[in-house]
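Q: I have two molecules that I believe assemble together. Could you output structure tokens for the complex as a whole instead of separate predictions?
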Amino acid sequence: MVKSVVCTIGDEILIGQITDSNAGFIARELNKIGVMVVQIRSVGDRQDAIWEAVDASLKEADLLILTGGLGPTRDDITKNTLARYTGSSRFYCSTAQEAHIRDICEKRGGRLFEINRSQADVPETCTVLENKLGTAPGMWFAYQGKVIVSLPGVPYEMEGIFPLVIQAVQQHFSSSLSPIIHRTIATFGIPESALAHKIADWETALPPELHLAYLPNPLSGVRLRLSCYDAHGGALLIEQAINSLKPILGSAIYSTHNQSLIEVVAALLHQKRATVCTAESCTGGKLAALLTSQAGASSYYMGSVLAYDNRIKEELLGVDSQLLHHAGAVSRDCVEAMAKGGQKLLRTDYAVATSGIAGPSGGSPEKPVGTVWIAVAGPQICSSQKFVFAGNRLINIDRFAAAALNMLRLSILD
Amino acid sequence: MVKSVVCTIGDEILIGQITDSNAGFIARELNKIGVMVVQIRSVGDRQDAIWEAVDASLKEADLLILTGGLGPTRDDITKNTLARYTGSSRFYCSTAQEAHIRDICEKRGGRLFEINRSQADVPETCTVLENKLGTAPGMWFAYQGKVIVSLPGVPYEMEGIFPLVIQAVQQHFSSSLSPIIHRTIATFGIPESALAHKIADWETALPPELHLAYLPNPLSGVRLRLSCYDAHGGALLIEQAINSLKPILGSAIYSTHNQSLIEVVAALLHQKRATVCTAESCTGGKLAALLTSQAGASSYYMGSVLAYDNRIKEELLGVDSQLLHHAGAVSRDCVEAMAKGGQKLLRTDYAVATSGIAGPSGGSPEKPVGTVWIAVAGPQICSSQKFVFAGNRLINIDRFAAAALNMLRLSILD
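A: Yes, here they are, computed for all two components at once.
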């Protein structure tokens, strides 16, 4: 097993000004070829911080990938630090990179400053990984049996160089690489602890080569990730584990192939050539926004009446004012009337309606904040259900919308 | 200067399955009270990895903030690791947290499993930071002159507890904290490079104590952050700089007090006691979702007709079919008709309509992907404008919705 540390360099990460996406990209790419990332670090643009991070990382890993700190200005000090660390006193010019730098400056219509040209000068202890999309080259140092790779911090430049890194890593570590396999089983509708209880026996019976993780999320439900780090027969072990889980969880599983809930719903609607509309109250457009987030949404999604005010529920969706008066807007009768009204008005196969209390105010002992009624009107029947969640306003809206999407999925499956 | 390390825990980060946003949030919050983050680390759900990260972090920092690994399932091991690290052999039950857990399980209508209840049991070496939004409490360990804080990894739970962390850090480290002052000037409608050009003279004239950063974002426009690290008189310097910027940017500035665009629009609507509805096409509910994201939205927001399909534009909003045929759905005439139709149907003071091409398909040479027409119908006049953005589908939808919100803001100000 080849172990790696990823270290991203830049003050802007440490003050929270940018969210580092490079580490995640690198981790996913390395995983695919069987390199395990054991730690991710971010440090500032300071020589001592970089030096210590390199030193500590090489103690726990075979491969260290650094990003950032390779720009042309004085605060970019990664290259000189790595030169000193690897004991290089001399630099050489990469003529290939120099050509790219000239080319880029020409395209930008600016003159070639020496601070740009000198980015092609690299320590003699490294080989160059050419950067065709930017001025700073990647650098590969083989040092005391370990490998240090330094890449620019601009994501698309880093990603552009990365195939060269993968190639070099595969060549260098060929004998020790065995691929890591991950599969995700996405479930919806069972809270994490109840899910753990339900699958406890299955979990206990998992072969020791497999590792299970729970990943709960308001919009995605609980995803279960099975990983196998010793790939010999791992794919088959995971497949078997998934197959034995299916009868336990049934339709609570919405994907075993990395699809999101909305992707699954969109695929079902496409497959059945069915159309859908929404009649939202408390979700305030969030459900519509999810349904229209997919390319090609216009083939299944017709529109929505967003009836935030009760007057709109009556006037546009035809909800009876007596019903609103007696049962209230957050009730089975109201959401069913909304769904049927929307289905009729917008002439779709399915209609999804929501009415609830997102908070922070508006709750009562009988209908606390977090309560929602959801109805799905289909070609044959209209089904409805109540949920009570415990979150803040925005999380409640997310949970309401995801629960509605899941009810739509189950209705189409029926 | 108080130094801090942030350490996020979870295999899902190391395999690149999720992008860690907790570290950035924590860094920004700590910065505000004068705590400097010197390193960010991510490690997996393994006792040795967590142990070593804690050990190494306490060597370089006074404060270590950990997130993640506090869930109820077997792969969550942070709590036990910290108990062992701080030499605690006994646990006690936080009755306050236990009450939250009971409350949450009750609301969800599920039974209280022991694995949930036991989340209230914490090492005797810590004090509890109550988590009202989830089952896992935060924990504060004062250990050998340093502080270790452990928080749940679910972002909104972590963010919900964080004010307690800030309070405790300020109390614990009071004598060593010197605040860093940041003020943000939020602008909308001027692209970053044009903005930089427009304020170049102002930027050059800034006093040397002030540092300027540009923070562009599809939903927020470009925010300018002024920072002063030596707080002596810094607040006044920043105030003066903001005052001299106002005449240069005029109504392009929507906030100098950390309000989001929707917060500003909601405040304006409240202040004018005005109501609004939306008639969305390409934004697919995103604009409505923004308008209803605020607590108390029901006092100004009435509802929406989401006319994704042209038939709905005609039938519900009364857009003329000849108009749709000749000018097309993405046109000034169409969005103005949609806005006026929505305003009439839903009887509101203002109505905002959008029609455009979010992509990836549907573009043409005359109307490329990223084109949007937006109209705002007000009590007196209806104004409309075309924008062309260059992003992917989801970024375009965000930009369209934010541009519509900004047009609404300007209409109300008029």
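A: One point stands out. The radius of gyration of chain B is 26 Å.
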